[in-house]
Write the structure tokens for this entry.
Amino acid sequence: MLTLIALGAFVLLIIGIPMWMIFLALAISGMAWKGVSMEVVVQGLTGSINKLVLLSVPGFIFAGGVMGQGGMSRRLIEWISALLGRVPGGLPLTTVTAAEMFGAISGSSSATVAALGKILYPALLKNGYGEKFSLGLITSSGAIAIIIPPSITMILFSVMTNASIGSLFLAGFLPGVLVGLCAAAYCVWYALKNGIADGREWSLAEIVSTSRAVVWTLGAPALIFGGIYGGFMTPTEASMAVSVYAVAVSVFVYRELSWAQVWNITRETALLSAKVFIIVAASGVFSWILTAEQVPQKMVATITDHELSPVMILLMINVVLLIVGMFLDPNSAIVLFTPLLWPIAQHAGVDLIHFGIIFTVNLAIGMFSPPFGLNIFVSCSIFKVPSARVIAGLTPFFLVYLVALAIITYVPALSLYLPRLLMN
């Protein structure tokens, strides 16, 4: 039956059937084959989303949307740009740094690409960085938002494995910074190699003015992480608090967001959240098939028979996830492959939190991996260019991210230092 399920999933995916429908169709077919009551379908659908932490997903999506349209992200970019001044590669460094900080609020890769691209892409072209480099930089930088907490991908991983969401968020900080540093190093090298100067001086007046303007924006990540790790809020409560904060700042302080726009963002958030929840619900039904057929146990047995070392097992997991990321969005990949790959990683002695970060970084790379990386299509839509031109600029950034992934995979202390320091 497993062979039929795999073939069926492949065919349905190729013809464009949504992932949640594939989960349900294959699960119901498998249950009918075995004569299982359809009550199991209902139990799987409702049980999978009966998790309090999932309520944080719409909160962070909404806050990111408000920031992007309410002037908060623009002020953040202007402040970072003023601080970097005439550092070689200043504009690309601004892009990477802004992705780190915007990701610390929204947790959404595509939202980060949209927010940064509209502001920084014209500036990059104007300063001589070229279309190829600029498209590759912005499209890949959005992936950092998945790694830097709060991350929707980490939230879903927590739901699938019961891992501590607080520990996962802490574990994402240093790997997220490492990815940013690797990308920044390449950007500086590129600017120096091509003799590109950003043509601006440091200005104390500009630094002071942008610092004053950005104070309210910086209050958002302070509210999230101060609330969670100060013990005042759960991640779900923090997501709702930062949503209210973002609306208050954008509407009443910056006065760049109307209530009509808030309503539109609310509708978009509802649609995006529904897509996440329906995938999680359908995966709960599909997991019955995996459990009934003992798929995880069989995979572990195969690994045991071949006596693979932990190094090779982690390499194999990375290769699988990189390929998966080329075809599936992170939400679908998390719910489908976590039950399959976690037993294998556990057999190799990998810590659950470390594995969550490895999983997350792989799927972040998948966000800009052809042919179906979501960020590629977001860039095509925003910049009105064909996908081939976006993909042409991604190769060096893909290699940079692979270097960071290798370090994160084989240096577990990078992921586990902060959780062990602050959560024990």
Q: What stands out?
A: The chain has a mean pLDDT of 84. The chain is about 80% helix and 0% strand. The chain has one domain: 44-422.
